[in-house]
Amino acid sequence: MNKKFTNKKQHHEKDVIITIKRLGINGEGIGYYKKKIIFIPGALPDEVVVAKIVKSYPHYLQGELVRIKEKSPDRVAFPEGVDPEIGGLELAHLSYEKQLEFKRNNMLESLRKYHPRNYAKYKVKKTIPAPDEWHYRNKAQYQIENVHGKTKLGLFAPNSHRLIDLPKMPTQSEDTQKTEREIKVLIEKLHVPVANFRRHLPGVKTIVVRQSEASKEIQVTLITIGHKIKNLIPLAKEIMKLDNVVSVYQNETEWQNPQVWGNKTEKLLGKNQIMEEILGKKFALSPRAFFQLNPVQTVNLYSEALKYLDLTPDQTLIDAYSGVGTLGILAADRVKQVIGIETIPEAVKDAEHNVELNHIKNADYIQGSVEKVLPELKNSGVSIDALIVDPPRTGLAKKLIKTLLQVKPETFVYISCNPSTLAQDLVLLSEVYDVRVIQNVDMLPQTPRCEAIAKLVLRK
Ligand SMILES: C[S@@+](CC[C@H](N)C(=O)[O-])C[C@H]1O[C@@H](n2cnc3c(N)ncnc32)[C@H](O)[C@@H]1O
């Protein structure tokens, strides 16, 4: 083998010609060079491209697209004026119709890879398209940096510390972007310190702007390193004067924290929560509580999930990973009782508040992890006959699956945001459940990510 390609992470200048065979799970083009798999972001199936090999690993090569020699008919123009390296636009060069196909194929591919029992018989339905392919994100979470007196505001290029200044992000709503830019100007005007990682100087690190689709209310959170930041309150007062802004929060984090958010959140000015509305129910949201990023498409996601739940009035529904209580609240009038389980205390408080807002009398929330709380519920004699799980990308804990295989809820719907962990969890769950249907719902157009709803039915 060429010596050049044996050294891990060695850089190469050599251009090679590759025919792209398919897309990988992250939307990158996949081809082969000297029998080794090569990943080329930005290339599409059936294209012939010139690529640079930028990194070589024992089992694969990482390529960079240099030029397209033969173009795919499915290629569309990448949004103008946007750095192609930005995360969140991995599929923006592929027609939307093909993006939907890709997302369904990704699910089929994951099933093939992990092969849960009878997977070939699963009915994997066509992906439900998002009503808006662009400007659908109602929450912007931009990093701020000041280098040599110039302030940059935007997103880091994936796997790097290079902050891409974002005058426009085509998947982000206009209002959230406008508010982000206005806050940047205010920070400069009021000389509010921006966190400096190289020199360890505290200040504002991230600006989070979330807007309700229904009420248009905007909640701003300034994530800071350090608590006392010069001119933070004057800044919050100015932010409160911006269009639609109803509250400003501070969240405090630490230098070493790999997460964006820290643990301390404090309201600086305005309302405690913003008010969202989905399918006629109201949801108050505090800054750290999870809520879907595409509120228009969320209506379709929840409607489909409720359809597959098929509830009856005598059932107790466990809303596992309940967030601010969305699914349980929407289902409450169809069952005897709802019990929600969620780890984040603020989200549990929001869920309890939302139950009151919607005049619901049969829903309770427990703060804790599903894997710990569910066995406790079982041992205390609660009849767990209907279950909806909506876990983060990591999927269900093995310990939880073990409990479910004993409890065997009659009605079971799994909402997943990661086909790979869904397929892995189904391997174990399919010991006692048949998978009736998998319905993909595209919440995040232009990205490789997709939400899926799986209906599980106890095998008789
Ligand atoms: C994908 S969100 C779903 C939220 C909600 N069902 C909705 O539709 O808005 C996942 C939620 O699970 C919570 N969570 C994460 N791990 C958990 C665990 N082990 N036990 C309980 N909740 C958890 C997160 O805080 C988050 O609110």
What can you tell me about this protein's structure?
- Residues 9-67 form the TRAM domain.
- Keywords: Methyltransferase, S-adenosyl-L-methionine, Transferase.
- InterPro entries: MeTrfase_TrmA_AS, NA-bd_OB-fold, SAM-dependent_MTases_sf, TRAM_dom, U5_MeTrfase_fam.
- This protein has 460 residues and is of the alpha/beta class.
- It folds into three domains: 3-70, Nucleic acid-binding proteins (OB fold (Dihydrolipoamide Acetyltransferase, E2P), Beta Barrel); 101-132 and 279-458, Rossmann fold, CATH 3.40.50.150; 139-272, Beta Barrel (OB fold (Dihydrolipoamide Acetyltransferase, E2P)).
- 24% of the residues lie in helices and 32% in strands.
- The chain is built from nine helices and 23 strands.
- The protein has helices at residues 96-114, 174-189, 232-240, 295-309, 326-331, 345-357, 370-379, 398-407, 419-429; strands at 15-19, 22-23, 29-33, 36-40, 48-56, 60-70, 123-128, 139-147, 150-156, 163-165, 203-211, 218-225, 245-253, 264-270, 274-278, 281-285, 316-320, 337-342, 363-367, 386-389, 411-416, 433-441, 451-458.
- A hairpin with a 5-residue loop joins β2 and β3.
- The N and C termini lie far apart (56 Å).
- The protein binds S-adenosylmethionine.
- S-adenosylmethionine (SAM) is lined by residues 290-292, 321-323, 326-327, 341-344, 347, 369-371, 390, 392.
